[in-house]
Amino acid sequence: EPDTTVAEQGGDAAAALKVTVEAPELCSRYAARLITDVQLKPSPWWMMRRLLAAGIRPINNLVDITNYVML
């Protein structure tokens, strides 16, 4: 099984967001990560090419990384 640990930095993310699982029988686990100081920019060319090859139009780095990890 792959190692999925990530080094924690900064404060507790629970203070910044609240999540309520309304159907726990349908969601046995929910994980979130708070990322701050993100800059909206164009995506790198290699990522745009991969998205286009999959039939997905590149938008920007935030939208594209989400689409890329779902390929």
How would you describe the overall organization of this protein?
- This protein is mainly α and 71 residues long.
- It has one domain (13-69).
- The protein is 25% helix and 0% strand.
- The radius of gyration is 16 Å and the shape is extended.
- The mean pLDDT is 90.
Number of domains: 1
User: What is the H/E string?
Assistant: HH
Q: By helix and strand content, what is the structural category?
A: mainly alpha
Calculate the mean pLDDT score and round it: 90
Note the total helix count. 2
Write down the Rg. 16 Å
Instruction: Report low-confidence residues grouped into runs of 5 or more.
Output: none
**Net shape:** extended
The total beta strand count reads 0
Between the first and last Cα atoms, what is the distance in angstroms?
Answer: 21 Å
Brief overview:
Helix content is 25%, strand content 0%. The chain has 71 residues and is mainly alpha-helical.
What secondary-structure arrangement, pairings included, does this model have?
Blueprint: H1 45-53, H2 61-69
Helix pairs in contact: 1-2
Question: What are the key terms here?
Answer:
71 residues, mainly alpha
